[in-house]
Design goal:
transport, 18 helices, four-stranded mixed sheet, about 45% helix, about 15% strand, Maltose/Cyclodextrin-bd, 14 strands, alpha/beta, 2 domains, D-Maltodextrin-Binding Protein, domain 2, about 425 residues
Amino acid sequence: MKKTLSIFMMVVLMLGVLSACGPKRDDAGTKDTGKKEETAAKPEKLIVWEDKDKSGWLKKAAADFEKENGIKIEFKEVEMATKMRDQLRLDGPAGTGPDIVTLPHDQIGQVATEGLIAELKVDQSVTNKFSDSSISAETYNGKLYGLPKSSETPVFVYNKDLMKEVPKTMDDLYTFSKDFTKDGKYGFLALWDNYYFAHGIIGGMGGYVFKDNNGTLDPNDIGLNNDGAVKGAEYIQKWYKEGLFPKGIIGENGGSAMDGLFTEGKVAAVMNGPWSFHPYKDAGVNIGMSALPTLPNGEHVKTFMGVKGWHVSAFSKNQEWATKFLEFITNDENSKYRFEQTAEVPTNKALLEDPVIKDNEGAKAVAEQSQYAIPMPNIPEMGQVWDPMAKSLQTIVTGKTKPKKALDSAVKQIKTNIESTK
């Protein structure tokens, strides 16, 4: 009898538990539809850190968001490339930091690992607005950590008074340079002893930094000394060996030396990024811009692409509303307005055909070249690549070492560096 009563009581208890769980099924059903319930209380304000000399456009966007949502946006400028991350490390834990920051995408792996930024939870309809490569740049270990605000990549910049039309191929450019290069003048210059620029050639020939396994980079699989990388390095060496590049554009002062020659009208074309457009124009050069000519193997120059993005601080107490603000300021309308104010090219797909970008020669060149570019690896191990590759490339362009041997040495050093940081 006791055994029968005990079993009966267990059944009653189980039914009670199941009954108590019943109402929650409706909530779960709502979540399955993909609809978000606004459960977070509205904060009085959100604090935004924008890059130095780039916050003017935020006045209008902030006012529009406040009018629509009743939340004030307070913003200040912090230099993005070096100071933003360091300041977040200090102010975030202290509770005096921002809700939203902007960072270059190659810092994401590090700041995400340190727990400085939060994973973003947004609908696919939001991410679908941007180019796949820019969303990939904002993703680390399969998780989205930011929404893109702009991208940049090296393009072909030429002096229209010295070059009447853009060569379609690098072979055509090589032929032009052979004829033009004399008496202190050069047909084409690039900082190919700098791996940031050299990757366009090495990557286009088949080399790679880390193997990309469906969006996850494998730091144990380095392709900087494979057959394609060697061919790319040999092609780079060819330009220096034949005197088409002057010796003065190697090393730390190479960029300023190249810019000086170009602005003096001694160079017909260069490989450079959008940051150079205004200085060249201010120097009085009649510049044109386009995507880079195709390589001898028929492939496009696979330049590195840098993406600047918006991120939610992991220390923010208003992450849900901060994410809503990110969605708001990166919509097509606000991204277009920001471009008009800052000249930084957005990655919104809908804007590629908008006259504001389509009719802008520089923006169009960056947008087109970005289609062939790859995001710089955003995993922490990338920090161990730059120095060995720079040293390797400098021995290659000066003819001190054969490409294969130099790249083997670089990869060996990169692997040692990565292992030492584990």
